[in-house]
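> @MW can you paste both from yesterday?
MW: sure, first one:
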Amino acid sequence: MPGSKSFNGGEGCHYADDTVWFTTKGDNRVWQLDLTGNTYELAYDDSLVSPGTPPLTGVDNVTGSASGDLFVAEDGGNMEICLITPDDKISPFLRINGQSASEITGPAFNPAGDRLYFSSQRGTSGSSSGGITYCVTGPFRT
């Protein structure tokens, strides 16, 4: 359709301050949609990372903190939640070990912004009944 944009496998979404960030799993990208300016741009694309191994693979769920940092969970990859700062610095925030048959899901902050909750969908068992929910306490950057 003329004037439209197709995205490859939309997955996670976060809204704050007239901006929507969303992930596309099929091409491992994080997008930023400016609702005020009616524009969109790439916030992260693993194929543009060079040299070396991209810090974030298997983009999935996404949430944001009061500081504007994005926390992007990996589906597979290194089982990490990676941080993308407002000035486009990307780094691992945390990694779950011993759960390679799982994926990180649902990162979200409590209303006070001092606790980050997320789950390992299948935990250490690899079974859908083996999920584990975690709580990471802050303070986080403000």
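MW: second:
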Amino acid sequence: MSTATAPGRTPVPGAHLARKKRLFFPFFLPAVALYVLFLLVPTVATVVLGFTDWSGAGDTPEFTGLANYGALIASDAFRYSFLNTLLYIVAGGVGTFLLAFLFTMVLREMRGGKLVRAILFFPNIVAPIALGMFFGIILVYRPNRQGLANYLLESVGLDAVKFLAPENITWVVTGCLVWASSGFYITILMAAVDRIPPYLYEDSDIAGATPWQKFRHVTLPLTWDVVGVAGVLWTISAVKIFELVFVLAGPGTYSPPIRSWTLGVFVFDRSFGDQGAPAYGMACAAAVVMILLVSVLVVALRRLMRRDVIQY
């Protein structure tokens, strides 16, 4: 095949590659500049401010070394925040992926599975604040007002439950997260299942495999890399949980009780909350802990889930 050129002109070898190289930096540099400006610079500034005592605009940050991190360790609010965040990562992740795997087993052979998949994905497109308000209306219990959940409990002769009490709110939020997030991970896993050749399942049917055996020996091994990516996405999103806790556990105008806090709520409260003067240095130190936590968990998760790629 010959390359068309203008009459009287001889094509120059490598001219096209040279033009592509000249376009590299005009496209590359703006992206790098935005990355540095809006990600690297704020991250470095957060790390630096974590070693200072600063109440915000108008004051000069005062270097205090590791004092903020020592204050975090001694803070009950931070301990509750850290443990609650770990609980959401572990308990919420286990519940979400168990539900996602269950639906993966069912939807693969279900007629109308794509429609059900779209319905299950719907809660994920709703804003967390709206979800918090929705669950708050259903679960609320007050002397002169009760939600649908307690109305149903009392209608069958059971006592009403204070779902939104500080001692219960963490588990309530975990259940809400599982309900709202499962559709997203079902969609991801089902996209991976759709790539599996149908003849593998046909061979399993001929061999008399049960649905669990097909999931264990066919579906899970061939989607293991996608499961690992989904686990990383869940870990990152769980560390940043804020809106759902803030709306469900609090009155919506100021910070909820500290027993329900997450690391995101802690950072917000130390920056803009009602627990006293702003402490941006401590808020930045807590944000650094969030960065370290998600980095350690993601690296550990990737190492634990590392397997050889299965070709099919």
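> thanks! The two ends are 35 Å apart (CA to CA).
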